[in-house]
Amino acid sequence: SQQGEEDPQALSIQEGENATMNCSYKTSINNLQWYRQNSGRGLVHLILIRSNEREKHSGRLRVTLDTSKKSSSLLITASRAADTASYFCATGETSGSRLTFGEGTQLTVNP
Amino acid sequence: GAVVSQHPSRVICKSGTSVKIECRSLDFQATTMFWYRQFPKQSLMLMATSNEGSKATYEQGVEKDKFLINHASLTLSTLTVTSAHPEDSSFYICSAPELRGPNTGELFFGEGSRLTVL
Question: B104 vs A96: CB contact, 8 Å cut-off?
């Protein structure tokens, strides 16, 4: 099965609510990253967390990493309609190596 | 962040023709680029790693004679889909890694190329 499984597959919330997406992986990693993709577009990097880090913040984003459980979560606080997109986690086994992407979570934020 | 430009963004071709997709790093040198493929509502699947000045490394199951990759300079990698068939219709995305600094490992993506083979 694929490295990087995410849940939920789809999430629909109201503007202002928080959105939490989870990612699990199978092998040892150097880093885990979260990306956003608007429909039909390329991916935009959101945040990178290294295996020796447990939590990282960037604006309204909060990422946690639990290497003992091989899992990560992405929290988007105070969501906006413009946050509607697909969100992917991706793992790198070494620094600068290729990334393996999860299945993604389709987030819909209703105005 | 760094900019990766991909061209064309959309291409429609007849079955049997070849299509070339270009991926350029605009403000940095990319010794390595990654080519991904994405089917509708699915994740990105790595096809190959493009290395400047040497042969590309293909993932298992990806036909290297079908998907020709050339990385002739530090700013340009090309993917040519040869003798395209309808099943090759997909969204192809290139990316280049950040190799220095605190965000080493971050990928910069092109905007993708949607290929439709009739």
Answer: yes
